[in-house]
Design brief:
It contains ten helices and four strands. The chain has helices spanning about 5-10, 25-40, 65-75, 80-90, 90-100, 125-140, 145-160, 160-165, 170-180, 185-220, and strands at about 45-50, 50-55, 110-115, 115-120. The chain has a two-stranded antiparallel ribbon. The protein has a two-stranded antiparallel sheet with strand order 3-4. α2 packs antiparallel against α7 (about 145-160). The longest helix is centred in the last third of the chain and has 35 residues, at about 185-220. It is globular. It starts with a helix and ends with a helix.
Length: about 220
């Protein structure tokens, strides 16, 4: 069975060449948020007063889910969901890509540009994504939304993938329906907050680097 993180990854990859349609930070945060949502759906964690609390430490049999659950269970503090999104995002994309390759859904293609290598992940078996898209399109079209579809669409929206994943759906219809479906999904809000915080940190770091370079130039000049 595919996890929400796997499904998000399939939606984020271009069908033509297997490259990602959104930035690495957005995708990694989205996938980390999908892990949290999966744990919540499996009744392993709950959100209590804005903090993630482990309520059942029983493993689910997936390495990433079980590792995150163990970290939450062992942690001495009740942390906000966006903090766990930030902590869980490292390496998640690479690991889930490897899993989808191992089970035959994705393949790999190596590209070389000068001395650099780049790997893309074209689909080998399109059926899982086709079934996923059919389910989500039905929900976007007005069909009742199950918990998994609601959680996934909330995260798709949070990492700004919705319009790219469903370009043929009218923007206003997409925005209205996604809002209806996802307004109660805390994992999606956590992803959005984590992405915003990371972007602010990148901007601050970049500004500091530019200021330091300018100061050095002036001093040297």
């Amino acid at each position: 069975m595919l996890t929400l993180a796997d499904e998000l990854l399939l939606l984020a990859l271009r069908e033509q060449d297997g490259s990602a349609m959104i930035g690495s930070t957005d995708l990694a945060c989205g996938m980390a948020g999908a892990l949290l949502a999966e744990l919540a759906l499996a009744e392993r964690v709950q959100l209590v007063d804005g903090r993630v609390v482990a309520v059942d430490p029983s493993p689910l049999g997936d390495p990433d889910l079980d590792a995150l659950l163990a970290r939450i269970t062992a942690d001495g503090r009740r942390r906000k969901a966006e903090q766990w999104v930030d902590r869980a995002r490292a390496g998640i994309r690479k690991r889930r890509l490897a899993r989808l390759v191992a089970i035959g859904i994705l393949g790999t293609r190596e590209h070389r540009v000068l001395v650099f290598r780049h790997t893309t992940y074209p689909e080998r078996d399109p059926r899982p994504e086709q079934e996923l898209r059919a389910r989500l399109r039905a929900v976007l079209g007005g069909a009742p939304a199950d918990e998994r579809s609601s959680a996934l669409l909330a995260i798709v929206h949070a990492c700004r993938l919705d319009r790219k994943a469903f370009p043929d759906v009218d923007r206003q219809v997409l925005r209205r329906r996604v809002k209806e479906i996802t307004e109660e999904q805390w994992a999606g809000r956590a992803v959005a907050k984590a992405i915003a915080a990371i972007q602010l940190a990148v901007v601050a770091a970049t500004s500091a680097a530019v200021a330091a370079t300018n100061a050095s130039t002036v001093a040297g000049g």
